[in-house]
Amino acid sequence: MAEFSLDEMRTAHEKLEARMANACAQSNRPSEDVKLVWVSKFHPMSAVENALALGATDFGENRVQEAVEKFSVKRPGIRCHIIGPVQSNKLKKAAFVADCIHSIASMEAVEKLEKICAEADKTLDILFQVNAGEEATKSGLDIREAEPFLLSLENHVPCPHLRFRGLMTIGKNTGVAEDSRECFAFLRHLQQKFLAHGGVFASFDQLSMGMTGDLEVAIEEGATMIRVGTALFGERDYSTKM
What we know:
single chain; 242 residues; alpha/beta; TIM Barrel; nine-stranded parallel β-sheet; globular
Protein backbone atom coordinates (compact mmCIF):
# COMPACT_ATOMS: atom_id res chain seq x y z
CA MET A 1 0.00 0.00 0.00
CA ALA A 2 1.29 3.46 -0.88
CA GLU A 3 0.66 6.78 0.77
CA PHE A 4 -2.95 7.87 0.41
CA SER A 5 -4.21 10.35 -2.13
CA LEU A 6 -6.48 13.14 -0.93
CA ASP A 7 -9.60 11.12 -1.83
CA GLU A 8 -8.26 8.01 -0.09
CA MET A 9 -7.38 10.08 2.95
CA ARG A 10 -10.88 11.56 2.99
CA THR A 11 -12.42 8.07 2.95
CA ALA A 12 -10.05 6.84 5.66
CA HIS A 13 -10.82 9.86 7.81
CA GLU A 14 -14.56 9.34 7.47
CA LYS A 15 -14.20 5.69 8.54
CA LEU A 16 -12.05 6.66 11.49
CA GLU A 17 -14.43 9.41 12.57
CA ALA A 18 -17.27 6.87 12.46
CA ARG A 19 -15.31 4.51 14.70
CA MET A 20 -14.57 7.29 17.14
CA ALA A 21 -18.18 8.49 17.18
CA ASN A 22 -19.44 4.96 17.78
CA ALA A 23 -16.95 4.40 20.61
CA CYS A 24 -18.01 7.69 22.21
CA ALA A 25 -21.68 6.77 21.89
CA GLN A 26 -21.04 3.38 23.48
CA SER A 27 -19.31 5.15 26.35
CA ASN A 28 -21.96 7.88 26.72
CA ARG A 29 -19.38 10.53 25.87
CA PRO A 30 -19.82 13.41 23.42
CA SER A 31 -17.64 13.06 20.31
CA GLU A 32 -16.03 16.43 20.93
CA ASP A 33 -14.47 14.99 24.11
CA VAL A 34 -11.89 13.13 22.01
CA LYS A 35 -9.28 14.95 19.91
CA LEU A 36 -7.75 13.21 16.90
CA VAL A 37 -4.00 13.72 16.57
CA TRP A 38 -2.90 12.97 12.99
CA VAL A 39 0.48 11.25 13.32
CA SER A 40 2.36 12.66 10.35
CA LYS A 41 5.79 11.22 11.17
CA PHE A 42 7.73 10.07 8.09
CA HIS A 43 5.04 11.51 5.79
CA PRO A 44 5.89 14.39 3.45
CA MET A 45 4.57 17.92 3.71
CA SER A 46 2.22 17.18 0.81
CA ALA A 47 0.43 14.65 3.03
CA VAL A 48 0.16 17.23 5.80
CA GLU A 49 -1.34 19.68 3.32
CA ASN A 50 -3.95 17.07 2.33
CA ALA A 51 -4.80 16.53 5.99
CA LEU A 52 -5.15 20.28 6.49
CA ALA A 53 -7.54 20.37 3.54
CA LEU A 54 -9.68 17.80 5.36
CA GLY A 55 -9.80 19.91 8.51
CA ALA A 56 -6.99 18.39 10.57
CA THR A 57 -5.83 20.69 13.36
CA ASP A 58 -3.50 18.55 15.48
CA PHE A 59 -0.42 16.74 14.19
CA GLY A 60 1.90 14.34 15.99
CA GLU A 61 5.60 13.94 15.24
CA ASN A 62 8.06 11.55 16.86
CA ARG A 63 11.26 13.25 15.78
CA VAL A 64 11.98 16.83 16.75
CA GLN A 65 13.86 17.70 13.56
CA GLU A 66 11.01 16.47 11.39
CA ALA A 67 8.56 18.54 13.43
CA VAL A 68 10.75 21.61 12.93
CA GLU A 69 10.88 21.01 9.17
CA LYS A 70 7.10 20.77 8.91
CA PHE A 71 5.70 23.00 11.65
CA SER A 72 8.21 25.73 12.48
CA VAL A 73 6.07 28.11 10.44
CA LYS A 74 3.03 28.56 12.66
CA ARG A 75 -0.48 28.42 11.21
CA PRO A 76 -3.46 29.75 13.16
CA GLY A 77 -5.38 26.97 14.86
CA ILE A 78 -2.83 24.25 14.01
CA ARG A 79 -1.09 22.47 16.87
CA CYS A 80 2.10 20.41 16.77
CA HIS A 81 2.43 17.55 19.24
CA ILE A 82 5.79 15.90 19.96
CA ILE A 83 4.81 12.34 20.84
CA GLY A 84 8.18 10.58 20.85
CA PRO A 85 10.94 10.66 23.47
CA VAL A 86 13.00 13.86 23.35
CA GLN A 87 16.71 13.80 24.09
CA SER A 88 17.95 16.51 26.44
CA ASN A 89 19.87 18.26 23.67
CA LYS A 90 16.70 18.44 21.56
CA LEU A 91 14.45 19.99 24.21
CA LYS A 92 15.09 23.56 23.05
CA LYS A 93 14.01 22.80 19.49
CA ALA A 94 11.07 20.76 20.78
CA ALA A 95 9.90 23.65 22.96
CA PHE A 96 10.21 26.00 20.00
CA VAL A 97 8.08 23.99 17.58
CA ALA A 98 5.65 22.13 19.84
CA ASP A 99 2.38 23.25 21.31
CA CYS A 100 2.33 20.09 23.43
CA ILE A 101 4.95 17.49 24.33
CA HIS A 102 3.46 14.12 25.33
CA SER A 103 6.58 12.26 26.39
CA ILE A 104 8.05 13.97 29.49
CA ALA A 105 9.35 11.44 32.00
CA SER A 106 12.04 13.10 34.14
CA MET A 107 12.47 16.05 36.47
CA GLU A 108 15.54 17.06 34.47
CA ALA A 109 13.35 17.54 31.39
CA VAL A 110 10.78 19.55 33.39
CA GLU A 111 13.46 21.86 34.78
CA LYS A 112 15.14 22.36 31.43
CA LEU A 113 11.87 23.04 29.62
CA GLU A 114 10.84 25.61 32.23
CA LYS A 115 14.14 27.44 31.78
CA ILE A 116 13.88 27.31 27.97
CA CYS A 117 10.25 28.49 27.94
CA ALA A 118 10.98 31.28 30.43
CA GLU A 119 13.74 32.59 28.18
CA ALA A 120 11.43 32.40 25.17
CA ASP A 121 8.45 33.83 27.09
CA LYS A 122 6.37 30.85 25.97
CA THR A 123 3.89 28.68 27.83
CA LEU A 124 4.03 25.01 26.83
CA ASP A 125 1.61 22.17 27.44
CA ILE A 126 3.23 18.94 28.61
CA LEU A 127 2.02 15.44 29.36
CA PHE A 128 3.90 12.83 31.34
CA GLN A 129 4.47 9.49 29.66
CA VAL A 130 3.87 6.38 31.73
CA ASN A 131 4.91 2.89 30.63
CA ALA A 132 1.59 1.54 31.85
CA GLY A 133 1.94 -1.68 29.86
CA GLU A 134 5.30 -2.40 31.56
CA GLU A 135 6.99 -3.27 28.26
CA ALA A 136 10.77 -3.07 28.08
CA THR A 137 10.66 -1.51 24.61
CA LYS A 138 8.48 1.42 25.73
CA SER A 139 9.61 4.73 27.18
CA GLY A 140 8.08 6.55 30.12
CA LEU A 141 7.78 6.45 33.87
CA ASP A 142 7.53 3.04 35.48
CA ILE A 143 4.06 2.48 36.93
CA ARG A 144 5.56 2.23 40.42
CA GLU A 145 7.40 5.55 40.12
CA ALA A 146 4.69 7.52 38.33
CA GLU A 147 2.72 8.59 41.40
CA PRO A 148 5.78 9.55 43.52
CA PHE A 149 7.14 11.50 40.54
CA LEU A 150 3.89 13.44 40.13
CA LEU A 151 3.71 14.11 43.87
CA SER A 152 7.22 15.55 43.73
CA LEU A 153 6.03 18.13 41.20
CA GLU A 154 3.76 19.65 43.82
CA ASN A 155 6.75 20.45 46.01
CA HIS A 156 9.01 21.51 43.20
CA VAL A 157 10.07 25.00 42.21
CA PRO A 158 7.09 26.59 40.39
CA CYS A 159 7.02 26.17 36.62
CA PRO A 160 4.86 29.08 35.42
CA HIS A 161 5.80 28.49 31.78
CA LEU A 162 4.66 24.85 31.77
CA ARG A 163 1.09 23.60 31.90
CA PHE A 164 0.85 20.09 33.30
CA ARG A 165 -2.00 18.79 31.14
CA GLY A 166 -2.17 15.06 31.84
CA LEU A 167 -0.71 11.68 30.98
CA MET A 168 0.24 9.64 27.92
CA THR A 169 0.80 5.95 27.36
CA ILE A 170 1.13 3.45 24.53
CA GLY A 171 -1.07 0.36 24.62
CA LYS A 172 0.32 -3.15 24.76
CA ASN A 173 1.84 -4.40 21.53
CA THR A 174 -0.05 -7.69 21.38
CA GLY A 175 -2.42 -7.03 18.50
CA VAL A 176 -5.38 -7.52 20.87
CA ALA A 177 -7.02 -4.24 21.85
CA GLU A 178 -8.56 -5.63 25.02
CA ASP A 179 -5.09 -6.37 26.38
CA SER A 180 -4.56 -2.62 26.79
CA ARG A 181 -7.65 -1.97 28.88
CA GLU A 182 -5.94 -2.47 32.23
CA CYS A 183 -3.10 -0.05 31.48
CA PHE A 184 -5.53 2.53 30.05
CA ALA A 185 -7.68 2.25 33.17
CA PHE A 186 -4.59 2.64 35.36
CA LEU A 187 -3.69 5.84 33.54
CA ARG A 188 -7.22 7.24 33.92
CA HIS A 189 -7.28 6.59 37.67
CA LEU A 190 -3.89 8.25 38.06
CA GLN A 191 -4.91 11.26 35.99
CA GLN A 192 -8.18 11.70 37.87
CA LYS A 193 -6.43 11.43 41.23
CA PHE A 194 -4.03 14.25 40.41
CA LEU A 195 -6.62 16.42 38.69
CA ALA A 196 -8.48 16.35 42.01
CA HIS A 197 -5.36 17.71 43.73
CA GLY A 198 -5.78 21.03 41.93
CA GLY A 199 -2.90 23.47 42.27
CA VAL A 200 -0.24 22.64 39.67
CA PHE A 201 -2.61 19.93 38.41
CA ALA A 202 -5.61 22.23 37.90
CA SER A 203 -5.44 21.62 34.11
CA PHE A 204 -4.55 17.93 34.36
CA ASP A 205 -7.50 16.78 32.27
CA GLN A 206 -5.88 15.12 29.25
CA LEU A 207 -5.28 11.43 28.52
CA SER A 208 -3.30 10.72 25.35
CA MET A 209 -3.81 7.04 24.70
CA GLY A 210 -5.10 4.82 21.94
CA MET A 211 -4.06 4.30 18.35
CA THR A 212 -5.63 2.65 15.30
CA GLY A 213 -5.88 -0.83 16.78
CA ASP A 214 -7.10 0.00 20.27
CA LEU A 215 -8.84 3.37 20.04
CA GLU A 216 -12.25 1.99 21.06
CA VAL A 217 -10.88 0.59 24.32
CA ALA A 218 -8.95 3.81 24.93
CA ILE A 219 -12.05 5.95 24.44
CA GLU A 220 -14.06 3.66 26.73
CA GLU A 221 -11.37 4.18 29.37
CA GLY A 222 -11.38 7.96 29.07
CA ALA A 223 -8.93 8.95 26.33
CA THR A 224 -9.16 12.61 25.35
CA MET A 225 -6.59 12.33 22.55
CA ILE A 226 -5.95 9.41 20.22
CA ARG A 227 -2.92 9.21 17.95
CA VAL A 228 -3.45 7.76 14.47
CA GLY A 229 -1.01 7.68 11.56
CA THR A 230 -1.02 4.91 8.95
CA ALA A 231 -4.81 4.52 8.96
CA LEU A 232 -5.09 8.18 7.90
CA PHE A 233 -2.02 8.74 5.74
CA GLY A 234 -1.28 5.29 4.31
CA GLU A 235 1.98 3.37 4.61
CA ARG A 236 5.11 5.25 5.56
CA ASP A 237 8.25 5.15 3.45
CA TYR A 238 11.06 4.34 5.87
CA SER A 239 13.66 3.80 3.16
CA THR A 240 15.00 7.35 3.34
CA LYS A 241 14.86 7.65 7.13
CA MET A 242 17.62 6.87 9.56
